[in-house]
Amino acid sequence: MLYALVRARPCRVGHIEVLSDRQIREAAAALHAAETERRQIRATSIEYPQMDMGDAYAIQKAWIELKLAEGRVIRGRKIGLTSRAMQDAMQIDEPDYGTLLDDMFFDDGAEIEAGQFTDPRIEVELAFVLKRPLIGDDLSVDDVLKATDCVIPALEIIAARSFRVDPETNRPRGVLDTIADNAANAGVVMGEVSVKPSEVDLRWVGALLYRNGIIEETGIAAAVLDHPATAIAWLAKKFFRHGIALEPGQVILSGSFTRPVTIAPGDTFDVDYGELGKVACRFT
Fold this sequence. Notes:
The chain has seven helices and 13 strands. It is α+β, with helices and mostly antiparallel strands. It has a single domain (73-283), classed as Fumarylacetoacetase-like, C-terminal domain (Fumarylacetoacetate hydrolase, domain 2, Alpha-Beta Complex), CATH 3.90.850. The model is unreliable at 1-17 (pLDDT under 50).
């Protein structure tokens, strides 16, 4: 059963100036062209300083619709900005989210062309694969775990289609720019080991990230809102406002529990998740 009952733009309360539908489409087209042409552009909020968070998600949605029209298929969702440190840096008090498409997925051990991404970085995550729909405004961690078929270690490749620091003004891009940019999502490397959510205490899943044999980052999954399933409950509640469910079979990235590490051609990443195995990839 499909739960995409409402396709309206997010409600805006208390705002007078918002972007027009034409501006939304233009901003989405600019990001789409930047990705396709492998170049960075000025941050969306510089071009549209009056935009708000509702506009940012509307731009993201319009961009995803462009991709779907080209034949892409939605495979899941991602959640970002789940750590307190990243929220403080962005001056927000909640995560953000984006959409995972079929062409974003890579197998464990894959060789990946670094040049297809702009300013690429890699993060350590847990991926939840759902077996039942998640929809509602009062979901708990336990509800998420019961709706989850399995949990898989994963690496997320993030890319900034707009400059992280504007070359003309030196202004860093902010959370509205990241949201419009599909929460910076670019790719997912899925591990080969899966576990049932009842088989392991997910809060204590740890990871050691090595780049070219040198350890760069470590972390545990509790850094994601104290439990990675908390992030997925948050996302399901957000979508419920628009009549949308997280669907069975979808892959939901619950958020990084390490800092992003820069990717360069020739880099090899090996990430050890302990009892959840290892995930690796190489960039050419």
